[in-house]
Amino acid sequence: MYADAAPNGGGMQPFFAISGPERQRQALVYASPHSGRFYPPELRAATRLELKRLRRSEDSFVDEIFAAAPERGAPLLKALFARAYCDPNREAYELDPAMFADPLPAFVNTASLKVAGGLGTIARVAGCGEEIYRRKLTFAEAEQRIAECYRPYHHALRDLVASTRERFGFAVVIDCHSMPSAEGHDQGRRPDFVLGDRFGTACAPGLIDAVQRQLEAQGYRVARNWPYAGGFTTQHYGRPETGLHALQIEINRALYMDEEAIEPTAGLARLTAHMADLIETLEQLDPARFAPETA
Questions:
Q1: In sequence order, what are the residues at sequence separation of 6 or more whose Cβ sits closer than 8 angstroms to the Cβ of residue 27?
Q2: Is 89's pLDDT higher than 90?
Q3: How many CA atoms within 13 Å lie on the side-chain side of 6?
Q4: How high is the pLDDT of residue 11?
Q5: What pLDDT does 293 receive?
Q6: Torsion angle of alpha carbons 119, 123, 124, 128, nearest 10°?
Q7: Is 169 exposed, middle or buried (0-12, 13-18, 19+ CB in 10 A)?
Q8: What is the pLDDT of residues 97-136, one digit of tens each?
Q9: pLDDT tens for residues 204-229?
Q10: Strand locations in the chain, DSSP E?
Q11: Which residues of 194-203 are buried (b: 16+ CB within 10 A; e: fewer)?
Q12: Is the pTM of this model over 0.90?
């Protein structure tokens, strides 16, 4: 899908897609919440940024990197809407009051660290650090995005998780992301991968251990929980005591893309092949290590 193309050839719904296997063989659900490339006309009309600057918010090509999941028996959920339009890896109402022309309802979370950084459910800044909007939004605009994009995405994810747990007795969400290769001009290159399990609270230790072993065997440098420990999806869906596990995977963009041009490099094919191997490895997870706790 091109950056300015509408989902379903211009249709209004849905703003997500599920690539499912003919028969689910794995108790895993892969999710790519930030790789969407649909920038609705109302966003394009309201922004002060050209499209390429907006696209710096994307986890570009991550849905392609994990595209082997359905072939290996696991569903892949992909947001089609741009992260700059609505971010499903936040609470539903994590909003910056300075962005809005009207007062926000009392139930809105206006004080989170993500809001302070300009990266709430409706972002104030793009990945390039620049302000997105030329005008203030209305709360009704935020409500529309949450209704059209955020809620359907999470409804689909909840359904996938529930059906997976019913089938296998447990479910694992792999939340797939990418990260800039460096943060600021004075810092060196980040690790190749950052694995986030909310500091050991979102999944069984065997999951993050298995992923790290596989990635390191493939020659990658791997870190845990810094600078990314997992966002809303990891925290919300990761409840190991109930048989629900979540792990966030952040991939260094320098491995597979030109970050300035937002174009894939030759590294994309190699990385995609390695992630296919990882998906196959995770099919061998021991169910006994992921089942709900019993009294």
A1: 164, 165, 167, 168, 169, 170, 171, 172, 285, 287, 290
A2: yes
A3: 12
A4: 47
A5: 79
A6: 70
A7: middle
A8: 999 999 999 999 999 999 999 999 999 999 989 999 999 9
A9: 999 999 999 999 999 999 999 999 99
A10: 16-19, 28-32, 76-79, 171-179, 193-196, 222-224, 244-252, 257-258, 263-264
A11: bbbbbeeebb
A12: yes
DSSP letter, residue 100: B
Counting Cα atoms < 13 Å in the Cβ hemisphere of 168 gives: 30
Q: How far is CA 187 from CA 178, 181, 229, 265, in A?
A: 18, 10, 19, 23
- For residues 11 and 271, what is the distance between their CA atoms, to the nearest angstrom? 33
**Contact 1/35 with Cβ under 8 angstroms?**
no
| CA quadruple 146, 235, 159, 96: dihedral, nearest 10 | 0
Q: What is the pLDDT of residue 10?
A: 47
Mean pLDDT of the chain, nearest integer = 93
| Rounded-to-integer distance, Cα 130 and Cα 216, Å | 35
What integer is the mean pLDDT of 65-84?
98
> What is the maximal distance between C-alpha atoms in the chain?
56
Q: What's the one-letter identity of residue 39?
A: Y
Q: Nearest-CA neighbor of 118 among 136, 93, 97, 96?
A: 96
pLDDT tens, residue by residue, 242-282: 999 999 999 999 999 999 999 999 999 999 999 999 999 99
76-79 and 16-19: which strand pairing? antiparallel
Domains and CATH numbers, the chain: 7-86+145-289 (3.40.630.40)
